[in-house]
UniProtKB/TrEMBL annotation:
InterPro entries: RibonucZ/Hydroxyglut_hydro (IPR036866). It comes from Duganella dendranthematis. This is MBL fold metallo-hydrolase.
Length: 436
Protein backbone atom coordinates (compact mmCIF):
# COMPACT_ATOMS: atom_id res chain seq x y z
CA UNK A 1 0.00 0.00 0.00
CA UNK A 2 1.51 3.31 -1.09
CA UNK A 3 0.56 6.31 1.05
CA UNK A 4 1.38 9.87 -0.04
CA UNK A 5 0.77 13.20 1.70
CA UNK A 6 -0.83 16.07 -0.20
CA UNK A 7 -1.07 18.53 2.70
CA UNK A 8 -3.08 18.99 5.89
CA UNK A 9 -5.48 16.01 5.91
CA UNK A 10 -5.03 15.21 2.21
CA UNK A 11 -3.64 11.82 1.19
CA UNK A 12 -3.30 9.57 -1.83
CA UNK A 13 -3.65 5.82 -1.21
CA UNK A 14 -2.62 3.36 -3.91
CA UNK A 15 -2.73 -0.42 -4.09
CA UNK A 16 -2.21 -2.25 -7.35
CA UNK A 17 -3.99 -0.21 -10.02
CA UNK A 18 -6.36 1.48 -7.55
CA UNK A 19 -5.86 5.09 -6.48
CA UNK A 20 -8.00 6.90 -3.89
CA UNK A 21 -7.78 10.51 -2.73
CA UNK A 22 -8.76 11.49 0.80
CA UNK A 23 -9.76 15.10 1.59
CA UNK A 24 -7.86 16.44 -1.44
CA UNK A 25 -6.96 20.13 -1.43
CA UNK A 26 -4.73 21.39 -4.26
CA UNK A 27 -4.48 25.02 -3.10
CA UNK A 28 -1.99 27.05 -1.12
CA UNK A 29 -3.18 28.95 0.77
CA UNK A 30 -6.33 26.91 1.22
CA UNK A 31 -9.47 27.75 3.15
CA UNK A 32 -8.54 31.39 2.29
CA UNK A 33 -5.93 31.76 5.02
CA UNK A 34 -4.27 28.39 5.71
CA UNK A 35 -0.71 28.39 4.37
CA UNK A 36 0.92 25.00 3.86
CA UNK A 37 3.49 24.22 6.55
CA UNK A 38 6.00 23.29 5.27
CA UNK A 39 5.45 25.27 2.10
CA UNK A 40 4.33 23.62 -1.14
CA UNK A 41 2.92 24.47 -4.55
CA UNK A 42 0.95 22.40 -7.07
CA UNK A 43 1.41 21.57 -10.73
CA UNK A 44 -2.26 22.04 -11.60
CA UNK A 45 -1.79 20.75 -15.16
CA UNK A 46 -0.70 17.42 -13.69
CA UNK A 47 -3.52 17.50 -11.14
CA UNK A 48 -6.01 17.82 -14.00
CA UNK A 49 -4.57 14.65 -15.53
CA UNK A 50 -5.29 12.60 -12.40
CA UNK A 51 -7.86 9.84 -12.78
CA UNK A 52 -8.47 8.60 -9.24
CA UNK A 53 -10.84 5.71 -8.73
CA UNK A 54 -12.63 7.64 -5.98
CA UNK A 55 -12.47 10.63 -3.67
CA UNK A 56 -13.42 10.32 0.00
CA UNK A 57 -14.21 13.46 2.03
CA UNK A 58 -14.41 13.10 5.79
CA UNK A 59 -16.53 16.19 6.50
CA UNK A 60 -17.73 19.48 5.04
CA UNK A 61 -15.23 21.93 6.58
CA UNK A 62 -13.56 24.05 3.92
CA UNK A 63 -10.05 22.72 4.61
CA UNK A 64 -11.32 19.26 3.64
CA UNK A 65 -14.10 19.90 1.12
CA UNK A 66 -13.01 22.49 -1.44
CA UNK A 67 -15.04 23.14 -4.57
CA UNK A 68 -12.11 24.81 -6.33
CA UNK A 69 -9.94 21.75 -5.73
CA UNK A 70 -12.66 19.31 -6.81
CA UNK A 71 -13.15 21.45 -9.92
CA UNK A 72 -9.73 20.26 -11.12
CA UNK A 73 -10.76 16.60 -11.17
CA UNK A 74 -12.39 14.50 -13.89
CA UNK A 75 -16.17 14.63 -13.52
CA UNK A 76 -16.45 10.84 -13.84
CA UNK A 77 -14.70 10.48 -10.46
CA UNK A 78 -17.00 9.05 -7.79
CA UNK A 79 -17.20 11.35 -4.76
CA UNK A 80 -18.00 9.91 -1.32
CA UNK A 81 -18.84 12.48 1.36
CA UNK A 82 -19.68 12.15 5.04
CA UNK A 83 -22.08 14.99 5.74
CA UNK A 84 -25.51 15.38 7.31
CA UNK A 85 -26.31 18.47 5.22
CA UNK A 86 -27.86 18.02 1.77
CA UNK A 87 -26.50 21.39 0.60
CA UNK A 88 -22.95 20.05 0.21
CA UNK A 89 -24.04 17.17 -2.02
CA UNK A 90 -25.98 19.61 -4.22
CA UNK A 91 -22.91 21.83 -4.53
CA UNK A 92 -20.66 18.98 -5.65
CA UNK A 93 -23.29 17.86 -8.18
CA UNK A 94 -23.50 21.46 -9.41
CA UNK A 95 -19.79 21.16 -10.31
CA UNK A 96 -20.77 18.39 -12.70
CA UNK A 97 -20.00 15.26 -10.69
CA UNK A 98 -22.70 12.69 -11.41
CA UNK A 99 -21.68 10.03 -8.89
CA UNK A 100 -21.87 11.71 -5.49
CA UNK A 101 -22.61 9.34 -2.63
CA UNK A 102 -23.25 9.86 1.10
CA UNK A 103 -21.15 7.84 3.51
CA UNK A 104 -22.72 5.97 6.42
CA UNK A 105 -20.91 5.01 9.60
CA UNK A 106 -19.71 1.39 9.63
CA UNK A 107 -20.88 0.79 6.06
CA UNK A 108 -17.92 -0.41 3.94
CA UNK A 109 -17.25 0.95 0.46
CA UNK A 110 -15.20 -1.23 -1.91
CA UNK A 111 -13.09 0.55 -4.51
CA UNK A 112 -10.82 -1.79 -6.46
CA UNK A 113 -8.25 -3.20 -4.07
CA UNK A 114 -9.50 -1.05 -1.15
CA UNK A 115 -12.21 -1.32 1.44
CA UNK A 116 -12.96 2.02 3.14
CA UNK A 117 -15.10 1.99 6.28
CA UNK A 118 -16.30 5.30 7.75
CA UNK A 119 -16.11 5.25 11.53
CA UNK A 120 -17.97 7.38 14.04
CA UNK A 121 -16.15 10.40 15.46
CA UNK A 122 -16.94 12.08 18.76
CA UNK A 123 -18.91 14.82 16.98
CA UNK A 124 -20.87 12.55 14.65
CA UNK A 125 -22.85 15.48 13.18
CA UNK A 126 -19.62 16.89 11.74
CA UNK A 127 -16.70 14.48 11.47
CA UNK A 128 -15.92 10.97 10.43
CA UNK A 129 -12.82 8.79 10.46
CA UNK A 130 -11.71 6.23 7.87
CA UNK A 131 -10.58 2.66 8.27
CA UNK A 132 -8.68 1.80 5.10
CA UNK A 133 -7.96 -1.83 4.23
CA UNK A 134 -5.99 -3.40 1.38
CA UNK A 135 -3.40 -6.14 0.90
CA UNK A 136 -4.15 -7.44 4.40
CA UNK A 137 -3.12 -4.06 5.89
CA UNK A 138 -5.20 -1.86 8.21
CA UNK A 139 -4.76 1.92 8.33
CA UNK A 140 -6.81 4.29 10.51
CA UNK A 141 -7.13 7.85 9.22
CA UNK A 142 -8.46 9.82 12.21
CA UNK A 143 -8.54 13.00 10.07
CA UNK A 144 -9.48 15.98 12.35
CA UNK A 145 -11.70 13.98 14.64
CA UNK A 146 -11.66 13.34 18.35
CA UNK A 147 -11.93 9.66 19.13
CA UNK A 148 -15.32 8.46 20.33
CA UNK A 149 -14.89 6.00 23.27
CA UNK A 150 -17.34 3.50 21.75
CA UNK A 151 -15.52 3.71 18.43
CA UNK A 152 -12.24 3.03 20.18
CA UNK A 153 -13.69 -0.18 21.61
CA UNK A 154 -14.98 -1.07 18.15
CA UNK A 155 -11.50 -0.59 16.65
CA UNK A 156 -9.64 -2.36 19.45
CA UNK A 157 -9.99 -5.89 17.98
CA UNK A 158 -8.08 -4.76 14.86
CA UNK A 159 -4.97 -3.98 16.92
CA UNK A 160 -2.14 -3.89 16.27
CA UNK A 161 -2.92 -1.42 13.49
CA UNK A 162 -0.36 -1.13 10.71
CA UNK A 163 -0.56 2.66 10.63
CA UNK A 164 -2.55 5.43 12.30
CA UNK A 165 -2.78 8.95 10.83
CA UNK A 166 -3.25 10.92 14.04
CA UNK A 167 -4.34 14.61 14.25
CA UNK A 168 -1.46 15.71 16.44
CA UNK A 169 -2.00 19.47 16.68
CA UNK A 170 -4.46 20.82 19.25
CA UNK A 171 -5.31 24.24 17.88
CA UNK A 172 -6.07 27.00 20.40
CA UNK A 173 -8.89 28.69 18.48
CA UNK A 174 -10.72 30.00 21.55
CA UNK A 175 -7.51 31.25 23.14
CA UNK A 176 -6.57 33.50 20.21
CA UNK A 177 -10.12 34.83 19.88
CA UNK A 178 -10.37 35.64 23.61
CA UNK A 179 -6.71 36.00 24.68
CA UNK A 180 -7.61 37.69 27.97
CA UNK A 181 -9.08 34.34 29.05
CA UNK A 182 -6.26 32.17 27.72
CA UNK A 183 -4.32 30.07 30.20
CA UNK A 184 -0.62 30.87 30.36
CA UNK A 185 2.19 28.35 30.34
CA UNK A 186 2.99 25.20 28.37
CA UNK A 187 0.17 23.20 26.80
CA UNK A 188 -0.15 19.52 27.67
CA UNK A 189 -1.09 16.92 25.11
CA UNK A 190 -4.64 15.63 25.68
CA UNK A 191 -4.68 13.21 28.59
CA UNK A 192 -6.74 10.62 26.69
CA UNK A 193 -4.23 10.24 23.84
CA UNK A 194 -1.84 7.74 25.51
CA UNK A 195 -4.59 5.25 26.31
CA UNK A 196 -6.19 5.66 22.88
CA UNK A 197 -2.95 5.11 20.99
CA UNK A 198 -1.92 2.25 23.25
CA UNK A 199 -5.27 0.58 22.57
CA UNK A 200 -4.71 0.87 18.81
CA UNK A 201 -1.08 -0.24 19.18
CA UNK A 202 0.01 0.94 15.71
CA UNK A 203 3.30 -0.05 14.12
CA UNK A 204 3.57 3.43 12.57
CA UNK A 205 2.10 6.78 13.67
CA UNK A 206 1.90 9.74 11.27
CA UNK A 207 1.40 13.22 12.82
CA UNK A 208 -1.48 14.32 10.63
CA UNK A 209 -3.73 17.33 9.97
CA UNK A 210 -3.06 20.96 11.01
CA UNK A 211 -0.14 21.04 8.58
CA UNK A 212 -0.56 24.78 8.06
CA UNK A 213 -0.04 28.23 9.52
CA UNK A 214 -1.57 31.66 8.94
CA UNK A 215 0.10 34.55 7.07
CA UNK A 216 3.84 34.95 7.79
CA UNK A 217 3.26 38.07 9.92
CA UNK A 218 0.45 36.54 11.98
CA UNK A 219 0.77 36.29 15.75
CA UNK A 220 -1.41 33.18 15.48
CA UNK A 221 1.64 31.26 14.25
CA UNK A 222 3.13 31.43 17.74
CA UNK A 223 -0.12 31.23 19.70
CA UNK A 224 -2.43 28.83 17.82
CA UNK A 225 -0.19 25.77 17.38
CA UNK A 226 1.29 24.56 20.70
CA UNK A 227 2.58 21.10 19.73
CA UNK A 228 5.77 20.56 17.74
CA UNK A 229 6.50 17.56 15.57
CA UNK A 230 9.50 16.89 17.82
CA UNK A 231 7.48 16.88 21.01
CA UNK A 232 4.76 14.67 19.52
CA UNK A 233 7.34 12.13 18.37
CA UNK A 234 9.02 12.16 21.78
CA UNK A 235 5.83 11.64 23.77
CA UNK A 236 4.41 8.98 21.42
CA UNK A 237 7.76 7.21 21.70
CA UNK A 238 7.29 7.08 25.47
CA UNK A 239 3.71 5.78 25.16
CA UNK A 240 4.49 3.30 22.37
CA UNK A 241 8.14 2.20 22.59
CA UNK A 242 7.76 -0.28 19.74
CA UNK A 243 6.04 2.16 17.34
CA UNK A 244 7.75 4.45 14.85
CA UNK A 245 6.60 8.04 14.33
CA UNK A 246 6.83 8.93 10.63
CA UNK A 247 6.55 12.52 9.43
CA UNK A 248 5.08 12.84 5.95
CA UNK A 249 5.68 16.28 4.46
CA UNK A 250 3.79 17.44 1.34
CA UNK A 251 4.52 15.11 -1.62
CA UNK A 252 6.32 12.49 0.51
CA UNK A 253 5.33 8.87 -0.15
CA UNK A 254 5.96 5.61 1.66
CA UNK A 255 5.32 1.97 0.83
CA UNK A 256 3.65 0.11 3.69
CA UNK A 257 3.94 -3.67 3.80
CA UNK A 258 3.52 -6.34 6.44
CA UNK A 259 7.30 -6.33 6.81
CA UNK A 260 7.96 -2.61 7.18
CA UNK A 261 7.91 0.87 5.70
CA UNK A 262 10.14 2.10 2.89
CA UNK A 263 10.40 5.40 0.96
CA UNK A 264 8.56 5.59 -2.35
CA UNK A 265 8.52 7.97 -5.31
CA UNK A 266 7.00 11.33 -4.23
CA UNK A 267 3.89 12.82 -5.79
CA UNK A 268 5.14 14.66 -8.89
CA UNK A 269 2.34 17.24 -8.81
CA UNK A 270 3.04 18.43 -5.25
CA UNK A 271 6.06 20.74 -5.36
CA UNK A 272 7.83 21.28 -2.01
CA UNK A 273 9.19 24.80 -1.45
CA UNK A 274 12.13 25.48 0.85
CA UNK A 275 13.09 23.65 4.01
CA UNK A 276 10.63 20.82 4.64
CA UNK A 277 11.73 19.77 8.14
CA UNK A 278 10.72 22.97 9.89
CA UNK A 279 8.73 22.82 13.12
CA UNK A 280 6.14 24.89 14.94
CA UNK A 281 7.26 27.51 17.43
CA UNK A 282 4.85 28.17 20.27
CA UNK A 283 5.38 31.22 22.52
CA UNK A 284 3.42 30.76 25.74
CA UNK A 285 4.11 34.39 26.74
CA UNK A 286 3.19 36.10 23.48
CA UNK A 287 1.33 39.40 23.73
CA UNK A 288 -1.27 39.77 20.97
CA UNK A 289 -0.97 42.88 18.80
CA UNK A 290 -3.78 45.41 18.74
CA UNK A 291 -6.58 44.71 16.28
CA UNK A 292 -5.86 48.10 14.68
CA UNK A 293 -2.33 46.91 13.85
CA UNK A 294 -3.62 43.61 12.46
CA UNK A 295 -6.14 45.45 10.26
CA UNK A 296 -3.32 47.42 8.63
CA UNK A 297 -2.04 44.22 7.01
CA UNK A 298 -5.11 43.96 4.78
CA UNK A 299 -5.73 45.76 1.53
CA UNK A 300 -8.45 48.42 1.57
CA UNK A 301 -11.93 47.38 0.55
CA UNK A 302 -13.72 49.12 -2.27
CA UNK A 303 -16.21 51.76 -1.20
CA UNK A 304 -19.04 49.36 -2.05
CA UNK A 305 -17.53 46.52 -0.01
CA UNK A 306 -16.90 48.74 3.00
CA UNK A 307 -20.43 50.11 2.83
CA UNK A 308 -21.84 46.57 2.74
CA UNK A 309 -19.88 45.53 5.84
CA UNK A 310 -20.82 48.65 7.82
CA UNK A 311 -24.46 48.43 6.81
CA UNK A 312 -24.45 44.91 8.17
CA UNK A 313 -23.45 46.34 11.56
CA UNK A 314 -26.27 48.90 11.46
CA UNK A 315 -29.18 46.78 10.23
CA UNK A 316 -28.54 43.21 9.04
CA UNK A 317 -26.85 42.11 12.26
CA UNK A 318 -29.86 43.27 14.25
CA UNK A 319 -32.27 41.43 11.96
CA UNK A 320 -30.25 38.22 12.01
CA UNK A 321 -29.82 38.28 15.77
CA UNK A 322 -33.53 38.68 16.45
CA UNK A 323 -34.37 35.80 14.10
CA UNK A 324 -32.31 33.40 16.26
CA UNK A 325 -33.24 31.84 19.58
CA UNK A 326 -30.78 32.54 22.39
CA UNK A 327 -29.96 29.72 24.84
CA UNK A 328 -31.41 30.36 28.30
CA UNK A 329 -28.00 30.04 29.96
CA UNK A 330 -26.29 32.53 27.64
CA UNK A 331 -24.41 35.53 29.05
CA UNK A 332 -26.64 37.69 26.83
CA UNK A 333 -29.84 36.38 28.40
CA UNK A 334 -29.23 39.03 31.06
CA UNK A 335 -29.51 42.63 29.74
CA UNK A 336 -26.11 44.10 28.89
CA UNK A 337 -24.33 46.49 26.53
CA UNK A 338 -22.23 44.96 23.77
CA UNK A 339 -19.77 46.93 21.62
CA UNK A 340 -18.57 45.97 18.14
CA UNK A 341 -15.43 47.79 16.93
CA UNK A 342 -14.53 47.54 13.24
CA UNK A 343 -11.04 48.57 12.08
CA UNK A 344 -10.22 49.65 8.52
CA UNK A 345 -6.94 49.19 6.61
CA UNK A 346 -5.51 52.38 8.12
CA UNK A 347 -6.26 51.29 11.70
CA UNK A 348 -9.21 53.65 12.01
CA UNK A 349 -12.14 52.37 14.03
CA UNK A 350 -15.91 52.66 13.84
CA UNK A 351 -17.76 51.52 16.94
CA UNK A 352 -21.31 50.24 17.27
CA UNK A 353 -22.90 49.86 20.68
CA UNK A 354 -25.94 47.67 21.27
CA UNK A 355 -28.32 47.01 24.16
CA UNK A 356 -28.89 43.25 24.22
CA UNK A 357 -31.87 41.77 26.08
CA UNK A 358 -32.09 38.06 25.39
CA UNK A 359 -33.35 37.67 21.83
CA UNK A 360 -33.67 41.43 21.21
CA UNK A 361 -30.92 43.84 20.26
CA UNK A 362 -30.85 47.57 19.40
CA UNK A 363 -28.27 50.25 18.72
CA UNK A 364 -27.73 52.67 21.59
CA UNK A 365 -25.56 55.68 22.33
CA UNK A 366 -22.30 55.72 24.25
CA UNK A 367 -23.78 56.75 27.59
CA UNK A 368 -23.29 53.30 29.13
CA UNK A 369 -19.98 51.40 29.06
CA UNK A 370 -20.01 47.98 27.41
CA UNK A 371 -19.36 44.83 29.42
CA UNK A 372 -18.50 42.67 26.38
CA UNK A 373 -16.56 43.98 23.38
CA UNK A 374 -15.79 42.45 20.02
CA UNK A 375 -13.17 43.74 17.58
CA UNK A 376 -12.61 42.76 13.96
CA UNK A 377 -10.79 44.11 10.89
CA UNK A 378 -13.25 45.52 8.36
CA UNK A 379 -11.67 43.42 5.60
CA UNK A 380 -12.30 40.24 7.59
CA UNK A 381 -15.86 41.19 8.42
CA UNK A 382 -16.51 41.61 4.70
CA UNK A 383 -14.78 38.29 4.00
CA UNK A 384 -17.04 36.57 6.52
CA UNK A 385 -20.12 38.09 4.92
CA UNK A 386 -19.30 37.69 1.23
CA UNK A 387 -16.51 35.12 0.90
CA UNK A 388 -17.38 32.50 3.48
CA UNK A 389 -14.26 33.08 5.58
CA UNK A 390 -14.07 30.90 8.67
CA UNK A 391 -13.90 32.17 12.25
CA UNK A 392 -10.36 30.94 12.92
CA UNK A 393 -8.85 33.24 10.30
CA UNK A 394 -10.90 36.41 10.85
CA UNK A 395 -8.74 37.88 13.66
CA UNK A 396 -11.83 38.52 15.74
CA UNK A 397 -10.99 39.62 19.29
CA UNK A 398 -13.37 39.27 22.25
CA UNK A 399 -12.74 41.15 25.48
CA UNK A 400 -14.65 41.07 28.75
CA UNK A 401 -16.17 37.62 28.36
CA UNK A 402 -16.39 36.03 31.83
CA UNK A 403 -14.66 32.70 32.38
CA UNK A 404 -17.99 30.86 32.53
CA UNK A 405 -19.39 32.48 29.37
CA UNK A 406 -19.34 30.66 26.04
CA UNK A 407 -17.63 32.88 23.50
CA UNK A 408 -19.66 31.38 20.63
CA UNK A 409 -22.64 33.24 22.14
CA UNK A 410 -20.93 36.44 20.97
CA UNK A 411 -23.55 38.23 18.82
CA UNK A 412 -21.19 38.69 15.85
CA UNK A 413 -20.16 35.03 15.88
CA UNK A 414 -23.78 33.93 16.03
CA UNK A 415 -24.90 36.28 13.26
CA UNK A 416 -22.08 35.23 10.94
CA UNK A 417 -22.01 31.49 11.56
CA UNK A 418 -25.38 30.26 12.80
CA UNK A 419 -26.96 28.35 9.90
CA UNK A 420 -23.98 29.19 7.66
CA UNK A 421 -23.48 25.63 6.44
CA UNK A 422 -21.43 25.57 3.24
CA UNK A 423 -20.93 29.35 3.08
CA UNK A 424 -17.31 28.99 1.98
CA UNK A 425 -18.16 26.42 -0.68
CA UNK A 426 -21.04 28.55 -1.94
CA UNK A 427 -18.64 31.49 -2.32
CA UNK A 428 -16.26 29.22 -4.23
CA UNK A 429 -19.03 28.21 -6.63
CA UNK A 430 -19.90 31.86 -7.22
CA UNK A 431 -16.26 32.52 -8.14
CA UNK A 432 -16.50 29.59 -10.57
CA UNK A 433 -19.67 31.09 -12.08
CA UNK A 434 -21.90 28.26 -10.81
CA UNK A 435 -25.28 28.80 -9.20
CA UNK A 436 -26.86 26.17 -6.97
Amino acid sequence: MKISRILHAGYVFESGATQILFDPVFENPFSRNCHAFPDARFDLAQVRQLRPDAVFISHFHDDHCSMESLDLLDRATPIYLYCVFDELFAMIRALGFADVQPLAVDTPVSIGAFEVIPRRALDADVDSMFQIRAEGLNVLNVVDAWMDPETLEQLKPYAPWDMVLWPFQTMREVDVIAPSRAARGPVALPEEWPQQLQTLAPRYVVPSSCQFQQEPWSWYNRAMFPITYQRFAQEVGEWLPSAQVVRLNPSVSVLLTADGLTPAAPLPWVLPVGDQDIDFHYDENIVPPATADIARHFAPLTAEQAAQALEFCRTDLIERYEEMELPDDSYFATPCVWQLAVYDHAGGVEQFRYRVRGDSIALVGDEEAPTWTTEIPLAKLYAGLALGESLTSMYMRINGAPEDADIVDDPLIRCLFNDAIGAYQAAQLRRLGITV
